[in-house]
Specification:
The structure is a single chain. By secondary structure, the protein is α/β, with parallel strands linked by helices. About 30% of the residues lie in helices and about 25% in strands. The chain contains 14 helices and 24 strands. A hairpin with a 2-residue loop joins strand 16 and strand 17. Helix 6 packs parallel to helix 7 and helix 10 runs parallel beside helix 12. The longest helix has 14 residues. Bound molecules: ligand EPZ.
Amino acid sequence: MDSIIVTGNGPLKGQIPIAGAKNACLTLMPATLLSDEPLTLTNAPRLSDIRTMTALLGSLGAEVSSLQDGKVLAMSSHDLNNHTADYDIVRKMRASILVLGPMLARDGQAIVSLPGGCAIGARPVDLHLRALEALGAQMDLRDGYVHAKAPGGLKGGIIEFPFVSVGATENALMAATLAKGTTVIKRAAREPEIVDLAQCLRKMGAQIEGEGTDTITIQGVDRLHGATHPVVTDRIELGTYMLAPAICGGEVELLGGRRDLIAAFCDKLDEAGVEVSETENGLSVRRRDDHIKAVDVTTEPFPGFPTDLQAQMMALMCTADGVSVLEEKIFENRFMHAPELMRMGAQIDVHGGTAKVTGVSKLKGAPVMATDLRASVSLILAGLAAEGETKVSRVYHLDRGYEHVVGKLKGVGALIERIPGQ
Ligand code: EPZ
């Protein structure tokens, strides 16, 4: 397993290009199952999760051609010859559950392995199943698989989520596009990835209103046609790299960055003493002065502070003046980066879903271990600001959500290397 070695090297300067959003691409790709005509995605990120979704779609009989070094995904599911998403693929990536709604809507049948939990929580899929039942699907859970049927096709209905779920909203939205009649999704997720999916589905002929609000209305249609759609900018990659100049000084321009995708995060950075300004190519970020102020953070569904930036923000707060309290309200176990940051001298008190961070003047480089995607990048950020060398092991987690992280950070002056196989 590869490791990454990063050595604190002072202020950063230059530009970092931001890729297409992993979490948009992972729901846009299954949308190809809704039509027998080609769906092409541009601005796709080059990530291992995308390769996993490619393999899953291939196992169902869809064709996914990766063009232009992976930035273009030309997909066609003209001949689906298998309706079973196997455990050995699904267990690697929870987003595999997103083939359930489209397959059911297209062919009235789907067998999808339950994804199982992951490092950050149990992450059940009950809301996905309830939503599809509201559209007339019959669900049987057997041998770790969901056996879903909709013999006469799906019918429009009312779906009222008890709390916000991004994935369940995506499954419901995709399924409803081909359901007979009208579907209303209440307490829908409002994330930019949902808006991006709705815009792509609309290009394919879907009739959708209200995406980006908590109520989405869909008029089912008989069939969807092909389309070409650019994947929206990755707001989590964007926020992650904005924290690099925040934690170790300098000024970095994030190419393609859009403030509207992470307004709550930008407001928190502003409170902490980090200046975010819009440029004609994206966003430019620098500290207002040499100090970062401790600020409190509570993660919430969009438009609140994103849970996927909580670990990275904690790294910044470890070096801030004062005490900050971070509340993780979305997942039950998303502080695994804390013990690793404490190996670097951070002072963090975790109680349940709350972490109290007392800033220290300097972190010390140390060997640390990545546990999940966002935790691993928070350790890289901490290493940028630490005295000496930090060796992050198990960086395969990083490859799931960050393309060329070493190249992008090297490009702005970071001392960072990837060591194979250690
Ligand atoms: C998506 O996961 C993202 N993944 C996650 O990003 C992100 O953290 C999350 O949304 C929240 O924004 C992708 O888009 C591929 P949820 P998802 O359903 O859809 C519970 C990353 O780092 N829940 O909004 O799985 C669930 O356990 C990843 O890129 C149920 O109880 O998240 C969680 O506590 C990590 N039953 C809460 O809801 C369900 O049926 C929110 O989960 C579904 C979810």
